[in-house]
Amino acid sequence: MDIHTIDDRLAVSPQITAADVAALAAEGYRGIICNRPDGEGADQPSFEEIERAASENGLEARYLPVTTGMVRDADAEAFAEALRTLPGPVLAYCRSGTRSATLWALSEATARPLPDILARTKAAGYDMSGVARRIANGGKTPTDTGDAHYKVVVVGAGAGGIAVAASLKARKPGLEIAVIDPADIHYYQPGWTMVGGGIFEASDTAKTMGSLIPSGVTWIKAAVAAFEPQSDAVILDGCRVVKYDRLIVCPGLKLDWHGVEGLVESLGRNGVTSNYRYDLAPYTWQLVQQMRSGAALFTQPPMPIKCAGAPQKAMYLSADHWHRTGRLSDIDIHFCNAGGVLFGVKDYVPALMEYVKKYDASLDFFHNLVAVDGPAKRATFEVKHPEEAPRQVTMDFEMIHVCPPQTAPDFVRVSPLADVAGWVDVDQATLRHKRFDNIWALGDVTNAPNAKTAAAARKQAPTVAENVIADMRGRSAVAQYDGYGSCPLTVERGKIVLAEFGYGGALKPSFPTWLVDGTRPTRAAWLLKERMLPPIYWKAMLRGREWMAKPARLTAAAE
């Protein structure tokens, strides 16, 4: 038998035989639902045979036949009723299991979020994206789609979304664009490290979304539930449907706070903080100021993550404060990194190591945070050194700065746009989807092997805009993205190691070395981060002014 578990109550499978029923009983199943009409296949046992075997083995069976490709709303209701009344767990079967999985998905539409339904069926081996619109509509077939239609639809109004909409408007002012995002506030997230270090005020990193949506762009204030790329459609929560000629996907990524046991319950108290949240960055600075002695832990989860340098930036700025106030010798600093290197581009490591030594910080590589006990002030790590058996260690702390595990958003991971790891599958040069020619993506959600930083989005937005406009004119891609990303590593108040690099770790400096040598800490780089980058973000990048971000021409090799 080929059994696919959906949840604790239900599993589905292809056609079973009467001889399989005894094995099902032995495995603990108590109910069977047959969704395959008798006589559909020449070698198919009848339901009467299955029912007789079920009775002999103490199972209850129901016959709910569904014609392939014709799952009616009433069928889903009957399936839900059968699940409610049959003893469980239940096995449902048809020819391949797809009809049974579809019936479950539709029957759960009002009880579970759409991404959860799609994720569970996908994990079981069944793609329900084709009925996503019905699931979003409460399991009912929509009678009136009420589709809105735009030439370009942008999913996500973060750094990448607003920047690409502005860049498109700069090139084609009359272009009909809609941006979909449910958020009221837009955040300058690169500033949160500085908030946690006592340099910026949190309020300076937030503006209302409405004030930033480019003029002439329609803002659809809603959450995306699913994609239907075969129908050129985006499904919103509540089953509203937005159609497009071209789609740009840039909703960012998901911070999986629940991925660490006990973390959600501990955040913002008991010395547990994170600069990855707007409301917690001020708490980081509060803890740094208050701390006099004890252990300070700074964690980094497995890659990929947003701004890979941010976890250690928090450590450097905290340690610098303790150094300046004469407390450093009484504080035991640990950088607990799930990976095996301090920074992924080796050219910047020597300068960073000088500060690791200055602050007497311990580098605990291959340490992945798995649990936090806030009241006990204890952290648990899974330690996985290469070619060694995994083990767990605990560390006590006075303060812990946590970088959470990170994934693509749920509605992306379960969609046809995703690769096997859940990220939007794009060509790394043109940022066009590898399977759907009228879809592009940028920012943290793509599987392009670049650093997930705002600086990357600043370079990607014009590239996507150029290529979308070229596509509208019937031309092939004209611009390419070289993987540029920037990570201003704040090693102390007043000095930064300005890491700038592209695909493969190739250095991509924006300034001559006499002005800013990115491989060593400089005051000039600090002034860039503190004084220049915020206005560049708010007044240039988000307004389609591509200062130092003009797209590169596509080379023959990139094609």
From TrEMBL:
Cofactor(s) of this protein: FAD
Source organism per UniProt: Roseivivax jejudonensis
All copies of domain FAD/NAD(P)-binding, residue ranges: 150-265
The protein, known as: Beta-lactamase hydrolase-like protein
Oxidoreductase found in the keyword field: yes
Superkingdom, taxonomy of origin: Bacteria
Residue ranges of every copy of the Beta-lactamase hydrolase-like protein phosphatase-like domain listed in the record: 2-110
Top EC class, one word: hydrolase
GO molecular function: FAD binding; hydrolase activity; quinone binding; sulfide:quinone oxidoreductase activity
The encoding gene: blh_1
